[in-house]
UniProtKB/TrEMBL annotation, chain A:
Domain of life: Bacteria
UniProt lineage: Bacteria, Pseudomonadati, Pseudomonadota, Alphaproteobacteria, Hyphomicrobiales
Residues that span the membrane, as ranges: 12-36, 61-81, 93-112, 124-143, 155-178, 198-221
Keyword Transmembrane annotated: yes
Domain Cytochrome c assembly protein: 4-181
Biological function: Required for the export of heme to the periplasm for the biogenesis of c-type cytochromes.
Membrane topology, record value: Multi-pass membrane protein
Subcellular location, record wording: Cell inner membrane; Membrane
Keywords: Cell inner membrane, Cell membrane, Cytochrome c-type biogenesis, Membrane, Transmembrane, Transmembrane helix, Transport
Main location: membrane
PANTHER family: CYTOCHROME B_B6 PROTEIN-RELATED, HEME EXPORTER PROTEIN C
Pfam annotation, one family: Cytochrom_C_asm
Protein name from the UniProt record: Heme exporter protein C
Chain's gene name: ccmC
Family note: Belongs to the CcmC/CycZ/HelC family.
From TrEMBL, chain B:
Subcellular location: Cell inner membrane
Top-rank taxon, per record: Bacteria
Known function: Required for the export of heme to the periplasm for the biogenesis of c-type cytochromes.
Keywords from the named record: Cell inner membrane, Cell membrane, Cytochrome c-type biogenesis, Membrane, Transmembrane, Transmembrane helix, Transport
Ranges that cross the membrane: 21-41, 53-71, 92-120, 126-153, 160-185, 191-217
Membrane topology field: Multi-pass membrane protein
Family that this chain belongs to: Belongs to the CcmB/CycW/HelB family.
Official protein name in the record: Heme exporter protein B
Amino acid sequence: MTLIDLANPTRFLALTARVLPWLAAATVILLAIGLYQSALAPDDYQQGATVKIMFIHVPNAWLSMFVWGVMSIASLGTLVWRHPLADVAAKAAAPIGASFTFLALLTGSLWGRPMWGTYWEWDARLTSVLILFLMYLGLMALWRAVDDPSRAARAAAVLTLVGAINLPIIKFSVDWWNTLHQPASVMRMGGSALDKSFLIPLLVMAIAFTLLFVTLHLAAMRNEILRRRVRSLQMMQASRIAFSGESGSRGEGASNEVGAA
Amino acid sequence: MTALSALIRRDIRIALRVGGGALIGVLFFLTVVVLMPFAVGPDLALLSRLGPAILWLGALLASLLTLDRLFMADHEDGSLDLITMSRTPLELACAAKALAHWLAAGLPLIVATPVLGLLLNLDMVATGAVALTLLAGTPALTFTGMIGAALAVTLHRGGLLMAVLVLPLSIPVLIFGVAASQAVIVGPMTFGAPFSILCALSLVSLVVGPFAAAASLRHGLD
């Protein structure tokens, strides 16, 4: 089964219906293991128990960028290969990516409160993740602004790819800006190698979150396909009523259209 | 080549004549800068410290707001379809249109900068630095904003949505523009490094902008 076989939405729905329960189960099991291990992980000698926020925070931050990568590949699929499911994949990924980005920001700021003494610091990483979040929201606003899905898909694909080129530039320039304005005021994690007792739970959590994303993404894609089918059925019904029922059933047709909207 | 230069000349002529609205950008720039002292107070020392940032923000917003009409007017009267169907590559036509727009709407902003620098208590050197960084940086704003303008015309939506989409993309230009100007005025930094990166950003956007805008127009107009 290659990617082109999945171009048929019915085949895609059938395949995902079989795969999804297994994926969901694997996600739950890995997440349970990861959470258990991170609960057992020792406290950091400097950060105390707050270091455990990292086990949630880092996978979220990693996925916030990974999802944009997935959307970029899907956008290439829309623009270059005209794969019919590519725009469904791109559209379904955006809210999930935005949620991961938001959670990364939220957990980061919860960690920052006891560590830095403030919820928000104009730190380079925080700032660039915030900009990433803004771009996710802009993309979602673009999807919502246009009612024709295929038209919105091509515009969103162009914007996603431009964003993919621009995100590293933004990251680099924010790093520059930060060192210019507030040199070394912020303690940094990372750099030094993590201890094994932290690394293994972190890796398990990262895999679990990636599986979580795949599960949610496939489920969201199914929903989007079904939503489009419902929409086209409603359009067909509306047009049938509009063209056949000139006499008498006009009131009924109007009420149906309101229900469709 | 003649087709492109004809396109540039036509666009500049339209922008400068009645109904073109290129010079409204300068007026907007002036108004934003005049509003600033009311917000932060008439303290000249503070204003001269914030000066480059104010000028850059004003120029950013002014160039963004005028971009809205880059393709829209041509789409309304049908000439955009002619440009799309012509034998000139659409990428080059987009680049020509953006260049014309920058000449008509971006260059006046830079000419106006010395006058606005006086209002913000910037000295000669600082004003020169800001004008120079604007000269190097505004092409990047125009060519990045062109992507937004192309999306706007294919979606029949303009204004606020496009501003929301394009503004995050222009953050690097803002950072390095202000950094280079500040380097001349106060900074321990050298002027050269941020200024070269600013020029690099302009060159990158010169390449990426036309391709993205042309892709968006080609896929979006039907």
